[in-house]
From TrEMBL, chains A, B:
One of its GO terms (molecular function) is carboxypeptidase activity. Keywords: Carboxypeptidase, Hydrolase, Protease, Serine protease. The lineage of its organism: Bacteria, Pseudomonadati, Pseudomonadota, Betaproteobacteria, Burkholderiales. Residues 6-125 form the LD-carboxypeptidase N-terminal domain. The keyword Hydrolase applies. One of its GO terms (biological process) is proteolysis. This is Muramoyltetrapeptide carboxypeptidase. Belongs to the peptidase S66 family. SUPFAM superfamilies: Class I glutamine amidotransferase-like, LD-carboxypeptidase A C-terminal domain-like. The active site is at S105, E206, H276.
Amino acid sequence: MNKKHIYIYSPSSAVREKPAFRRGVAWLRAQGHEVEIDEAALSAHQRFAGDDATRIAAIARAAASGADVALASRGGYGLTRILDGIPYKAVAKAIDRGTAFVGMSDFTAFQLAVLARTGAATWSGPTLCGDFGAEAGIDEITAACFDDLVEGYGEGTGWRLPARDELPSFKPIRGATLWGGNLAVLCSLLGTPYFPQVDKGVLFLEDVGEHPYRIERMLEQLRLAGVLARQKAVVLGQFTGYRAAPHDRGFKLQTVVERLRSQIKAPVLTGLPFGHVPTKVLLPVGGTVDLAVEGKEAFVVWGHDVGGSRHAAPHDHHGHAH
Amino acid sequence: MNKKHIYIYSPSSAVREKPAFRRGVAWLRAQGHEVEIDEAALSAHQRFAGDDATRIAAIARAAASGADVALASRGGYGLTRILDGIPYKAVAKAIDRGTAFVGMSDFTAFQLAVLARTGAATWSGPTLCGDFGAEAGIDEITAACFDDLVEGYGEGTGWRLPARDELPSFKPIRGATLWGGNLAVLCSLLGTPYFPQVDKGVLFLEDVGEHPYRIERMLEQLRLAGVLARQKAVVLGQFTGYRAAPHDRGFKLQTVVERLRSQIKAPVLTGLPFGHVPTKVLLPVGGTVDLAVEGKEAFVVWGHDVGGSRHAAPHDHHGHAH
């Protein structure tokens, strides 16, 4: 494989688990990559990876690095505070030059703000500490999807729909903008200039530690704000890490999915391998995609020129996450 | 005291603690009030006090009851789902006839939607189960504030500012719209038609079970959406029931307050006795108020014709919550 330049920086919470950080760097280097570590990657200020100015400067350095991949060390919380200060033009220019910005969770705020302000695409995908540095080792599918990105082979992904959520009459969607990420972070931008106005898009969502009633409340906000009515499809990833309450009495995640389907016209696909789980595909936020269902399988396919992955050569999508 | 007609209904979560419900009803009856219980007050469907249609019908019956006070049995979650179905005109007419709608927490969704759609004022205050039916008995100040409302004596409230948050140079605010409630519920309406567009208002906020980083993220959303810049003052009530993390390293609620003050021009008052705590004052959401600081004390004063409390006679504000 080709040796790539990967720039590690910390735009959100402080890296507390240094071993995970080191494991992640070591794994990437073992793949033959040149890993450059931002000077403030291990900074800490309160719960943040440095104060606001430090993290803004780190983003600017990542954009100026000329790297093939700018990889966030971790999520957490911190990007919301600095949305007014992100050097959007520099980020868009870096993406145009071929830098793929990759991350998830709190990183959703960065991704949506970049899309809203510049139209440029970034990648929802693994983080250094949470994935490459995972104690159990990085998930094979996640690693393969990341390889696809850096090798330029990735042109899409596929997954098996849960049996009860199969959509036999799904009509293929062509040329839609893919966007989304963490549901809570996405909703926290509603009403602000950093919420992208995407019409006829494909919206994907995941979250962690949110009870189904809170997931429903957020989906209701998106519906009442008119966002869902403007989408061609909603794709639900993994919603994990919440605790059911005795009070729920049959109100569960599937209840929320069924209600959503009863409330909006757009089809709702489930089972997307993305979220706070080891197995996660990479998805271009702001990329133009086709979405299709064939039998029990769903496929998202994108062009080979999205989100800093312009090195890509034509190649069948891999469908790693079947 | 005068015997009043109090209508109990359940617009949100199901009442699971029947003893609290009974204690609350008994307490109100012991005060001499006529307590009418909605036919669906103890209904249950999943985690809700009946399905959506049942709860919408309960609100309609409360509005048609002609009661002096329509008191929500409890909060929880459920109003967001039925915002499109609330009979707003009937509610506004009831308020105009003198019914005071009282509640909190999830009830904030009802209050803000009524304000956005009709301009009518409702009351942030106790719930039947959480306050009147509390196992320890109702808080004396909460009971006195409620008496003020039903007797028509209440024209304001006052509280002592925390020493570190005193605002000696605070300029009195006159004739501003008071609004707010539960921060998470309020933010969950941003971007929707149920979020009231209040200019030059006094915004009060409380929450429970939200870590300071989430409180900050929500305040940032209000700031980035331009809501805070349009307010004359922000008044913070009680933020309780969250767990600090080792990861916080000095990031705490006071950090959030200080940052808020650094980010907006409007003064930020703290210590308002309102929230998920026993001692809570009643506040008219949508009422026109004056806000003043005298020494260590803050005062909110409203007219005697707000939010169904039109029986009120001129009377000094009580300042119960000093």
